[in-house]
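Risk mitigation, structural track. In case the binding assays with magnesium ion fail to produce interpretable data, a predicted complex structure has been prepared as a fallback.
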Amino acid sequence: MKDEKIKIEKRLENMKDFYIKANELIDKLPDSIPVASKEKIKDIVLGDEDLKKLMEGIDNHRPPRIFLIGRTGVGKSSLINAICGTYVAKVSDTKSCTYSAQTYLCKDKDRVLMEIFDTRGIAESESLNDSISAEEMLIKEINKFSPDVAIMMLNCTHRDDVDSDVKFLKDVTKQYSEVNHMRLPIVVVVNKCDEMAPSRFKNPSEYPLNKIDKIKDVVQYYKEIIVKNGLKIDNIIPVSSLIDWQTPDGIEIGVEDIDNLPQYDIDNLQIAFDGRYNIDELKDILEEAIIDFEAKMGLRMAARLNEVVMKMSKHLNNIFAGISATIALTPIPVSDIYILLIVQALLVSLIASLSGRDLSLDSAKEFILGLGGVAGAGYVFRLVAQQATKFLNIFFPGSGSAVSSGIAAIGTKAIGKAAIAYYIEEKTIDEAKKKFEDAKKQ
Ligand SMILES: Nc1nc2c(ncn2[C@@H]2O[C@H](COP(=O)(O)OP(=O)(O)OP(=O)(O)O)[C@@H](O)[C@H]2O)c(=O)[nH]1
Ligand SMILES: [Mg+2]
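Fallback model:
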């Protein structure tokens, strides 16, 4: 597991190294491309803010700070495990706060995955007789913690009175935006869906329709309360955090006994039964909701490292589709088609670098031309502005002499998809070609 993580991080570094080299690579392009065009490519590709941020995110990610609010036993700790996909150690933070709240770091071995501010909610706050000051104190602590997102956890099977917590969150968001000059994203999670009747169906793929309908009703019920109280939320989602754990030697163990295990067993706990429902969807929602880019990347690194390469390559593909559209709109002293090819070659090389390979721009161009069925890389080098329309017809049949930004974006995306299939998913070149054709048709 740990080796796998190191490998993934190496692949990300590899991509970043290629990106850093891109400047030089563009300079080294054949002299038939005017310097002005090379500069243009650099401006557009290397000046692209999203791309810059993506690359920076590889180094500059930080554990997201999550403010969890929910009654005792609703499954806050379980949710964190479900999101991380491992049994995460909770390391108490010394700067801990009031009796009704606690901050801790979630760690997987030596990696800090997330910072959590965990509170049982205002209704369970111990100094109810002095609730105003308790509430104020809590809000102060929350602001000090400065969360990237708040998760409000509710129970699917008992419809608790949540009015007070909803009102409390409303106060929290009000003060948060005064302090931070931005909105606190809120995601509402309705947990323990597996326990909804018929509760014998624990495997999400086997949830019968009547169970799903009942879950929907509960979500609707909570939604109405939230709306009625005027709390603005980003999203609400029903989930199950159910994971049964086993030790490396295959003995199933209840969560309440885990802390008594030898440290080795705790570090190497495995999933015996995975009853997680909607957790991937929740990760998407959280990633969407978190505004700070470094925290967003941190969540991605914490929650879906094994999917990070795929996510990154898709992200790259979207960015380059945008870049291609920009190029098609920009007057460039040499036909934009050749420029597009170079940009697309950069994309292919970056995707290949994410797979751990070093692919030169020339080889990337060969790959692209291979998709179009043009044999031989030599063709590429002879390809100059005058021949561009021939090239155009390979990729964008019948599109005439100028490429519209829409077509440029679609073409680049199709090439990116083929590169992802071939380099990341290790499909055959024929399958990659098919991806390319399908994407173009779409
Ligand atoms: N069936 C089922 N059990 C769950 C789920 N989530 C949590 N549990 C169980 O509910 C119990 C409480 O879960 P915790 O994650 O400790 O709840 P918590 O909100 O962190 O509780 P406190 O830390 O005491 O506030 C544990 O026995 C969990 O195994 C779920 O989605 N489905
Ligand atoms: Mg807990």
